[in-house]
Write a structure and sequence with these properties.
This protein has about 300 residues and is of the alpha/beta class. It contains ten helices and 14 strands. It has a seven-stranded mixed beta sheet with strand order 10-9-8-11-12-14-13, with helices on both faces. The protein has a four-stranded antiparallel beta sheet with strand order 2-3-1-4.
Length: about 300
Amino acid sequence: MNWIELILEINIKDIEIASNIAHIVSHYGIYVEDYSHLKEEVEQIAKIDMIDEDLLSKDPNIAFIHIYINPEENPNEVMEFIDERFKSEKINYKIDKSICKEEDWINNWKKYFKPTPIGKKLLIRPIWDENYNAQDRIVLNIEPGVAFGTGTHETTRLCLEKLEKYISKDDEVLDVGCGSGILSIASLLLGAKKAVGVDIDEMAVKIAAYNAEINSVEDRFEAIAGNLTDKITGKFDVIIANIVADVIIKLADNVRDYMKPNSIFIMSGIIDTRLNDVKNKLCNQFDIIDESSEKGWYSLIAKQK
């Protein structure tokens, strides 16, 4: 079956708003070509010959958003919606439309997901890429699935860096909105004793369980299909929520019920315009002990008062 592929070319400064608009019109996943960190990542890897020359030549100021449209849908309506929304946000863009075979839609984005160092200890490695040098880093093997992320977005990167800093041996971890399971699995590889990942999407739960298996931590990982903490019992040393501000605010109402006395609450996925809303929700019950940001996204670490 042939799909319609729309490729939006935009300035990197508009990537956040443009991606959010693209997600509205796409029911089948999008992928983003963002080369703004490529030079920095190459220097971290220190293996330039491992990186495709075509990638190294990419303009770091330009990003591309790929949207896939079912052939039964009307691509002109999608294009009109994008045009209207982009104009309202003053986003300049170019658009290209082409035919894409279904197998290309599934596999196209994979060529842009390369082994990526995170923090000081981890290397995120897609399972289809054999050409990498771990350089003494802990390798986290990942099959993200089209819809669940690769670990290279700022929100996940911030979380992974915080896990390196705060995970202790024998910690028990709860990952709310676990997606591909990347944060749960990273916790286990960094020394945690047990991790529970919960997600409302049953496909995410299956992918998370598979990723635990390919990292040989399946005996310490439990994946649960459920809404936030509805199906969770017990208490944890570390609770992770890499979601969005509104859901973090909702979760804050009862997250203490699942925390041990000295537990930490790691939050990410908070856009700068919602940072104060989250802090205001937390201030009566938590002390914020750590805060970091990247490209307008924030991560917070909190402990109970």
